[in-house]
Each structure stands twice: as structure tokens, then as C-alpha cells.
Amino acid sequence: MKILFVVSEVEDLAKTGGLADVAKSLPIALKALGHDVRIVKPYYKQLAEKFKLGNVADEQLLRAGDKEYRFNIKRLELETVPVYCVDYPDYFHRAGLYSDGYEAFGDNAERFAFFSMAALRTAQAMDFQPDVVHCNDWHTSLCPYFIKRDDSGFFARCRTLLTIHNGAYQGVHRFADISFLRPHAELAAQIDSQGNLNFLKMGIQYADKINAVSPNYARELLTPLGSHSLYHDFQHRANDVSGILNGCDYQQWDPGSDKFLPAHYTGEALQGKALCKQTLQQEAGLPEKANVPLIGMLCRLTEQKGFGYLLPVLNQLLQHNVQILVIGTGDPVISDVLQFNAAQFPDKLVFRNDFSTRMAHLLEAGSDFFLMPSLFEPCGLNQMYSLAYGTIPIVRAVGGLRDTVLDLQMLPEQATGFMFEAPDSSALLNCVRRAMLFYHEYPDRFVQMQKRAMRQKFTWYDAALNYQALYQHCLPMDN
Ligand SMILES: Nc1ncnc2c1ncn2[C@@H]1O[C@H](COP(=O)(O)OP(=O)(O)O[C@H]2O[C@H](CO)[C@@H](O)[C@H](O)[C@H]2O)[C@@H](O)[C@H]1O
Predict the structure, then answer these.
(1) Is any ligand 1 atom within 6 A of the Cβ of residue 260?
(2) Residue 305: CB within 6 Å of ligand 1?
(3) Mean pLDDT per 10-residue segment, the chain (479 residues)
(4) pLDDT tens digit string along 224-280?
(5) What residues are designated binding site for ADP-alpha-D-glucose?
(6) What is the distance between the alpha carbons of residues 222 and 234, in angstroms, rounded to a whole number?
(7) Domains of the chain and CATH, by start
(8) Are 97 and 9 in contact (CB under 8 A)?
(9) 12, 147, 180, 438: which could form a disulfide with 113 (CB 3.0–4.6 Å)?
(10) 300 CB contacts (<8 Å, ≥6 apart)?
């Protein structure tokens, strides 16, 4: 099959979160299955500075009403997969991908409506006639509509899949600002009372198939509570909604060969993990104590990750003999509270308001537990990385976390972690206490759990097979 994978960010090229991990690993896994897959993404400033690429096509013209856009197309190879980059400096040559700090750019509607249109034009310019256009999240959710309304004939046989990595971000923008849509009077019914259009809703309505990044999140999207207020939209497409669990890139995330670690280890020989813990404590400025449980947390600082009920009990948690290391950037209100608590308990809580791939790997290897108490979690990748590193996840039973972690109380013989149900502070506190007790009281069983966790495998090969089946499902019968 010919697959055009349209996405805003890709690991190694430009990244703000888990979407990028998937946008690298999945196309590579699909390519390995024999498909002709090509990625299209914006040529962001970070990318332009890293790779000074020449044009493979220039001065591509797009018209929207009386506006004209001329953009260039660059190309690079990501391992085996060609990546086309849409080069339009006015929109993409900026410090951040979606914002310059924490506030979104005011013209994101225009930027991503343009990008969605330009991605399709790129396929035409490259004479790549896809069987499937695979869109990802709100940034590219207008592609299915543009394809349905395209009158060039180029996409006549093409089908569309929308993957939802995070349904909370929907791209709600003033319709009047989106010059690519202004001529489409038929969209009047989609505009809400404030004059806004919801990009993700458009994708849900017009894509041939929709999938979430885990089976459990797909089920949640079909409920009033888990649908991010899009209950009726998802229900309307219920027969076309499914879930495919993300994979873990075990080449990048292998404690037996990870280039960011001071020592290597495997499920058979865990000894190296102790040195990773010591190095992590050293780098974080925590006392180097081997037998104090070290809980790591690494994520974007946003309500999604459970800070709403974690922060109120942080103080109580820190009364225990424990060390906590939090790394992440995002909401300044969350970072202020973390900073405040870290100043009160300098020997127990360290907060790093930044992100680096090296620290992400060291934290996964050096921690005993990985905390991910998410309010919602479409799939979650860090708990998979934790499992691979024998770092026991403490998670809330939601979204993909429920699909990937097995709780000690529920399945004592197969357990790989600790899980709590209610999104509240006392459930979280109890769960962390349960984990710490287990660590102290049953050190041998703790090691058994680590080894079991390391044997879990969520491969991109399996995920790619599932996507392949879903693409086939999208296609017209005679294909
Ligand atoms: N400040 C930062 N800057 C750059 N990178 C950072 C970062 N903080 C964390 N990361 C990295 O981003 C990734 C986080 O992935 P997750 O899946 O855990 O969450 P995210 O919510 O971003 O992804 C969403 O999409 C993924 C992919 O489908 C789903 O698994 C998930 O549930 C959904 O919320 C990891 O590779 C991590 O190291």
C-alpha cells in the first residue's frame, strides 16, 4: 500500500511529546512490512537549523480566496522512510512548534489548515498517489475534508484514517480566520455559537476510519466521561472507531545497550541498575542512598498527567522515607508548586524544569518506580519504557495504562506494577504507599516483578500489523 503519513512532529526532527515517538516508529515498522510509506511534516525552525536541506520542489502555489501561499518542499530520509517537509517560513520558522512559551500562537488555525492542504499538494507534486492518507491529531484533521472536496481526481481512490493520540487537544478556532475554509458555505452547520470550528470534530466526521492509540482509550472515547465532550460525535461514528495499542521502540529503549546510561543491565542480570540509580541521584543532587525508593516522573506539566490530585498530597508523600524526581516543562502554575515543595524538602524532592533525551533515559533506568497518575492517558509511552527498564510503574487505571500495566492486588502472580482507580488524592496516596511497602517488605518479590516487567513486549511490529489490517478495511472492496 501507498501511505501518506501526515503529522506535525516526528522524533529526531521536531518533538514536544509522545506523538513524535509514534510518528517515527510506526512509519518505519510499516515500511518493514513492505509498504511505501512517506511522512509529510512542517519544516520547523529546529529542523531547518539541524539539516540545511535543498528543495525537491519549489514555489508550490496554494490559493485560499484572495490569499496566495507559495511554499517549497524539502526531503530527507528517516532511516528507511522518506520525509517531505513543507517549507513556509512565515508559519514554521518560529522558536516553538505550537507556542513561543505556554500560550498557543494566535494563528494556529491558519498554520495547520495551510499545512493540511500543503501536505496533500506535496503528494501531488511528488506524484505520490496514496491509497491511504493517515492523519494524526487535530493538526491534520482537516485533511479528510479537503480530500473529500478535492476535485482534481488525484485523491479519488484514496481513503483516510484519523489517529487520535490526544482527544483533549481539538484545535477550536474562529472559522472566520481560516481562509482555506471560508469559501465552504456547507460548513456553516459545523460552526458553534461563538463562531468557532473544531478541527478534531471535522476529522471525526470526515475520516473513513478513526482509531485511538489504545483499545481502552477507544472504549473511553465512546462514553460521556471519556469523550472530551465529543460524545455524540464519537457515538455517531461508533462503527468506525477502534483502538490500536502503540508500541515501544526496543532499539532505543534497551537498558542492555542504551548509550545514555553509565552501566548496562538486562532482566537476567540487573546489577547495572544500581549504578544507574546512583548516577541519577548524583546528577539530581539527591543523597546517594541505595535502599530508599526513588520515584521518577517525567512528562509535560499539564493537568492530563494527574497533577490536580498529586500536588495536594505531595507534602504527605514526602513525610515518608522516599526520593522523588520530577522532570518536565509546561504549565507554570504546576512548576511553581513543584519548585515550592522541592525547596521545603531538598533531600527528598528534586524538580527539573527542563527536558532532555539523556535525562529521560537516565531517569527511566535509575528510578525504582515511575509515577504516571494520569487523569486520562490515550496510550502512554513512558510506562512502557519503564517496564522495559525494570522500573515499576505506579499508574491510574485509565486509557492505555490499563492496557499495559498489571496491578499487584488484582494479579499477584503476573503483576508488573501498581494501579489505582479513582482520580483523587487519597487513592493516589494509598497506591504509592502500597508500592513503597512492597519495596521494603518484599525485596525478592520486588526483583521478580522487575524481571516480569522487563519481559513484557509491546512491539511496533504488532502495532503495524494492526494498522495494516485497518488500512485494508478502509480501502474500496476491489483493491
Ligand atoms: N517537555 C517535553 N519535551 C519533549 N519531550 C517530552 C517532554 N516531556 C516528555 N517528553 C517525551 O515525550 C514522550 C511522552 O510520551 P507519552 O506518551 O507519555 O505522553 P504524551 O502525552 O506526550 O503523548 C500523547 O500521545 C502519545 C502517542 O500516541 C500517547 O501515548 C499519549 O497517551 C498521549 O497523551 C516521551 O518520549 C517523553 O520522553
Answers:
(1) no
(2) no
(3) 98 94 98 98 95 93 91 96 98 94 89 97 97 98 96 95 98 91 85 95 98 98 98 98 97 97 98 98 98 97 97 97 96 96 97 96 98 98 98 98 96 96 98 97 97 98 98 78
(4) 999 999 999 999 999 999 999 999 999 999 999 999 999 999 999 999 999 999 999
(5) 15
(6) 6
(7) 2-247+461-474 (3.40.50.2000), 272-457 (3.40.50.2000)
(8) yes
(9) 180
(10) 16, 17, 328, 329, 330
CA pair distance 424, 181, nearest whole angstrom: 42
Please tell me the distance from the alpha carbon of residue 194 to that of residue 79, in angstroms, as a whole number: 45
Q: pTM for the full model? A: 0.96
Whether the CB of 212 sits within 6 Å of ligand 1: no
Predicted pLDDT of residue 257: 98
Number of the ligand 1 atom closest to the C-alpha atom of 372 = 18
User: Residue 444: helix, strand or coil by DSSP?
Assistant: helix
Expressed in angstroms and rounded, the spacing between residue 444 Cα and the centre of ligand 1 is 32
Cell matching residue 19: 506523538
Instruction: Give CA–CA dist 466/189, Å, rounded.
Output: 35
Torsion of CA 182, 187, 190, 193, to 10 degrees: 50
Write out pLDDT tens, residues 323-354.
999 999 999 999 999 999 999 999 999 999 99
Determine the distance separating the centroid of ligand 1 and the alpha carbon of 377, expressed in angstroms. 10
For ligand 1, atom 14, which residue shows the shortest CA distance? 18
Q: Which residues are annotated as a binding site?
A: 15
Q: At what angle do helices 272-284 and 357-366 cross, to 10 degrees?
A: 120
